[in-house]
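=== RUN LOG ===
request id: a7f3
mode: sequence -> structure
chains: 1
length: 130
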Amino acid sequence: MKVLFMVICAVLMIGLNATGGEQTENIFEGIPYADGHMGKRQLVDEKHLLVVQVALKPGQQVPQHNANSNVHLLIIEGQIIVTLSGKDTVANKGDLLPVTFKTLMSIRNASKANASFLIIKSPNPSEMEP
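=== RESULT ===
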C-alpha cells in the first residue's frame, strides 16, 4: 500500500516526458473530455508503470474487456459504475478500486455529471505474460 501511495503522489505531481526528464503536469487541468466517445490521455508510460487518465461525459463508457495488468482505478472527479465479473460497484471521487489481472470489466458514467479517473497499471501491460 505504501508503494501505491507513492505512485499516486508521483502521478499527481510529476509526469515524465519522452526524454526521461521531469515536467509538472496537473491532472485536474485539460481533462480530456470528448463528444461521442470516452476521452483519454497517457500520463506515464514506464516499464513498471502505465497511468492513463480517462474522462467520461454522462452516458459514455469504457467497453467491456479483460484487465491486461494489475489495475487500480482512482476516481478524481464525479462517479462511475465499474462492472467487475458481472458485479456493479459504484465508485465516487476519491475512491481507489483494485482490479486483478484478467478480470472481466467495464466502466460507465450513469450520472448526469462528468467523471474522470486514473487507470494505474503495474506492471505496464507490455511487461505482462499473455
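=== NOTES ===
The chain has one helix and eleven strands.
Residues 60 and 97 are 19 Å apart (CA to CA).
=== END ===
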